[in-house]
Every structure is written in C-alpha cells, then in structure tokens.
Design goal:
The chain has about 250 residues and is an alpha+beta fold. The chain has 5 helices and 13 strands. The protein has a single domain, classed as Jelly Rolls. The strands form 2 sheets. Strands 2, 3, 4, 5, 6, 7, 8, 9, 10, 11 and 12 form an 11-stranded mixed sheet that branches. A two-stranded parallel sheet has the order 1-13.
C-alpha cells in the first residue's frame, strides 16, 4: 500500500489549491503554502495520488490555508484564563477536490462555521451531542441550548473512502450547502465531516471561521501558554487518523 506522496505531486496539489484560493480573493501569503497545508487523513489515503486529485475517487484529503489563529487572551480577566482555551479567533480556507472528504471528527473546544466560497459542500453531522465517555464527551455535562437543525437522510450515491463507513455511521444528518447560503454552524463536541460531490465541476472551497484552533504542531503555543502546547482538539472517528493529521509523508523526487 502506498504510504507517501512525492514532492512533485504534493507541490502540484497544494499550489493549485493556493491558486484557487487567491482567485477567490483569499489572502494567501507565502508562509501559508507549506508542507502542512496538505492534509492526508491516514496512511491508507495516500493512494489518492496514484490516480490524482481529479480522479473523483473517494479519499480523505484536503488543503488548508490558515489566515489567522489568535488566542484572543489580551484583556481577559485572570480568573477567566482556565476557560480561555475555548475562545479565540481562527479563519482558514479549505479546498476539497471532487470526491474527496474531510474526515469525520469532533472538537472538544472549537465551535466553527462554514461559508461556501466556490462549489457545493456535502455536510454530514450528528444534530445532538453523542456520549463518548472514552473521549471525555458526555452530553449531560455540557450546555446544549439547542441541537443543530435536523438535516436530511444521506442521498443515494455517496461513496466514502474504502474502510471508512463505520467512522461516518453516527453522522446521520445531511445538508447540501451552496454559495450564498446561511453560514453553517457546528458547535463544539458535535460529530461532523464534509466533502466535495464527486460529480462537481470545480473543487469545493470553504471559508471556515472558528474559535482558536488547538494543535500541538503550533510552536507558538509554547511561548503563549506552556500548558496549551500539547492540546490537540480534534477527535477523529477512524483509528489512526489523529497521528497522520499532524504530519504529511512527502518523499522527495
């Protein structure tokens, strides 16, 4: 099984995605185009590059360009600092090629919303928080002012990445989100994932805004607050995805 992407393949994918983002008016700086911009969700997903990102085959791989990730702690009362990891500001642009997906997951801390900039998004989610004691998620222990809106049953013809069906089975609601639609909000601790329809004529481009994005790969977190350094706020439903999310295996050549 192929477990790498070549430098030529990776650069072609990420630079095309960056060019699309620029064409859509997003402020992509040189520093945002790097070896962490392309995200492959698991060693078994590198096979996406055998036929290419335009093959329309179902794989979990996306490109992300972060414009801002601000903890927004300045001015907070010191007594509020233990809750500060649930706040902050983050904005990013996500590019998903036809047939590709962002892996099914939840965030312990982060609430986010999606705005479609180009194409259409297939969004899959659980309208209510589901108990996952092994993940530290218990619906009875959190504020749930209102559940997410009930979506529709999954349409026929959705093809998931091979071996990923079980990871998506609790995301029972579906919405097709288009440019100009209301922003689609996903509160923290809700299961969700999204993809670009396989028959789409363009990649999907989503502008995502959220609270602060915690990942241990961010070196600045250590300087900001040492206790945040190793916080990882993404719980993926498929085993092994969390580790692969933090690094892309790029083979030179």
């Amino acid at each position: 099984m192929r477990d790498y992407v070549t430098r030529r393949e990776y650069d072609a994918w990420v630079n095309e995605s960056a060019a699309l983002a620029v064409a859509c008016g997003y402020p992509v700086r040189d520093s945002m185009v790097n070896d962490n911009s392309g995200v492959i969700f698991g060693a078994d997903q590198y096979a996406a590059f055998e036929q290419g990102m335009w093959s329309r085959e179902p794989f979990e791989a996306i490109a992300i360009f972060d414009a801002i990730n601000e903890p927004a702690i300045d001015g907070l009362p010191k007594a509020a600092m233990k809750f500060a990891e649930f706040g902050g500001l983050c904005e990013k642009l996500i590019v998903v090629h036809p047939g590709k997906f962002c892996s099914a997951h939840l965030h312990w801390r982060k609430t986010e919303y999606y705005e479609v900039v180009l194409g259409e998004a297939d969004v899959f989610y659980a309208p209510e928080i589901i108990d996952f004691p092994e993940l530290g998620v218990m619906a009875s222990e959190v504020i749930e002012r209102k559940p997410m809106p009930e979506g529709h049953p999954w349409p026929a013809g959705i093809r998931l990445a091979k071996g990923r069906d079980k990871a998506w089975e609790l995301l029972t609601s579906y919405q097709r989100v288009r440019k100009g639609d209301a922003k689609f909000v996903v509160p923290r601790k809700h299961l969700h994932g999204f993809g670009c329809p396989a028959d789409a004529r363009t990649p999907l481009i989503i502008r995502e805004n959220s609270t602060y994005n915690h990942e241990p790969t961010e070196s600045s977190k250590g300087d900001l607050m040492p206790e945040w350094q190793h916080i990882h706020d993404n719980a993926f439903m498929h085993p092994g995805v969390a580790e692969s999310r933090l690094g892309t295996n790029i083979r030179e050549g």
